[in-house]
Please model this.
Amino acid sequence: SPSQQQAIMQRTSDAYGPGALCFPPSPQTQVMQQREYTIFLIDRSGSMDDRHNGGDTKLNGAKRANINMMLHKSQLDAEDEIGIVTFSDEGRLLRPLRPIRSAKTDIISAVQSIETDGGTAMGRGLDVTRDAFDWRSNGIVRRLVLLTDGHHNTGPSPLPIAIDLKERG
Model:
């Protein structure tokens, strides 16, 4: 709804400054030709509710890191695409790959809505991430940003899936 979007934009502006949602294209943006697809894979398991060094929760730190990196990427090239996958006991495609320019507010809202629950099936999250990338297109840089406390404890081993992702590029 418009009021929710306005609240999201206000929270983002308060946290990252008034220009966080409006970046004019830089001269570098116009030169860059190669597309980038970035999927943020966010651990939402119960252990992410723990506080880090007595401060905020690990999940809130991961949310801030995700939003901050997306906002910085939008300065470089707002046509690059961002997607969000979460995992706990299961992997879930929260937002498919979409250009940052048209999806920035939606992505921020989706990230802010993530809540902790369950175990840590990192392999299932990686599996959903692998399926979320378009592997048919050439000339695209594919990136995976894993935001986790590293406590894999259920489901398939993440290592074979990570190796497959690396081999695919």
About this structure: Residues 23-31 have pLDDT under 50 and may be disordered. Strands lie at 35-43, 81-87, 91-99, 140-147. The radius of gyration is 16 Å. The helical segments are 2-16, 27-31, 58-76, 100-112, 122-132, 158-168.
